[in-house]
Specification:
Layout lengths: L2 H14 L21 E5 L2 E4 H15 L5 H23 L6 H25 L5 H13 L3 E11 L2 H12 L4 H8 L10 E6 L5 H8 L11 E3 L2 E13 L8 H23 L6 H6 L1 H6 L2
Antiparallel strand pairs: 1-2, 3-4, 3-6, 5-6
Length: 290
């Protein structure tokens, strides 16, 4: 059988099993061959349809491409390249190297761990009560203040102080921002629009919270970006989002908490025996590892 025949046979088998999607959910028509169907033999090594379909689905997902004969051909060529180079490594005994064995074992463990977490996540559905509690904890009690401000960003504290002196003399904040600010908002007179406390770095937010509308900072404010002169124009108390609008966000947070608890529970139940000889040899490191 020629390589071209193997190539065409593999693609034909893939098409017969139905199209694959980027979500790794192959559509399986009634006549689809079973996953253990051999679609090709490379140097005497049989290749199953299931193996290639897994490779193809992952390749399709990573590329963000559409399923097509052209992409199937490209993926199959890549798959054969992987097979023949892997076989070459085995022929040379590379797979017997201790470091390679450890690397393969790590990949196996990582895959199983990821699948265990996926399985746990799929089995977790927060109740309406859990969602309401999470919503109240995040949005129910604290008011959400928003600010409308302008700023001028410069490199040094002295530059910022000179600009404040100009403002004290009646200088126009927007015009000074246009001619002096290093930030991308400079061309717009330093206009930052509306923002809440979570959207700005802490020193900037801390300064704005102490100001009254219409006032500008009398001393420069330093952040990792440089030195700021800030003008607070308006404030308003924003309405919290509806529960429905943040349901997906809250669900994701509860799911993360559930997975963390799942892992912690497994750790608590696990029987972990450390090598006593190593502990005796390195008592300080053993204590730090607790």
């Amino acid at each position: 059988m020629t390589k071209r025949t193997l190539y065409v046979g593999c693609i034909a088998a893939l098409l017969a099993s139905g199209p694959l999607t980027a979500e790794d959910k192959p559509a399986a028509p009634a006549a689809a061959p079973p996953p253990d169907t051999t679609i090709a033999t490379v140097n005497g090594q049989p290749v199953s349809l299931g193996l290639f379909r897994l490779f193809y689905a992952e390749r399709l997902r990573m590329a963000g491409s559409e399923n097509s004969p052209a992409f199937q051909n490209q993926a199959f060529n890549e798959f054969v390249n992987i097979l023949v180079t892997a076989q070459n490594a085995e022929t040379k005994g590379i797979d017997k190297d201790a470091n390679v064995k450890d690397a393969l074992e790590i990949q196996r463990l990582q895959l199983l761990s990821r699948l265990a977490l996926q399985n746990a996540a799929q089995n977790f559905t927060p109740s309406d009560e859990d969602l309401k509690k999470a919503y109240d904890a995040r949005y129910g009690e604290a008011s959400r203040m928003e600010y409308k401000a302008r700023h001028i960003l410069v490199k040094s504290e002295d530059e910022a102080k000179k600009l404040i002196a100009e403002l004290d003399k009646g200088g126009d904040f927007a015009e000074l921002a246009k001619t002096n600010s290093l930030g991308p908002t400079g061309k717009n007179g330093g206009d930052l629009g509306w923002f809440d406390s979570q959207q700005m770095v802490k020193p900037f937010t801390d300064a704005v919270k102490t100001m009254k509308p219409g006032a500008y900072t009398k001393t420069p404010v330093q952040t990792q970006f440089g030195w700021h002169v800030i003008l607070l124009e308006e404030t308003r108390e924003a309405e919290p989002p509806t529960l429905d609008s943040v349901k997906a966000e809250l669900t994701a947070g509860l799911q993360r908490d559930a997975l963390a608890n799942f892992v912690n529970d497994l750790r608590e139940k696990a029987k972990l025996d450390l090598n006593s000889d190593l502990i005796k040899a390195n008592p300080q490191e053993a204590g730090e590892a607790k």
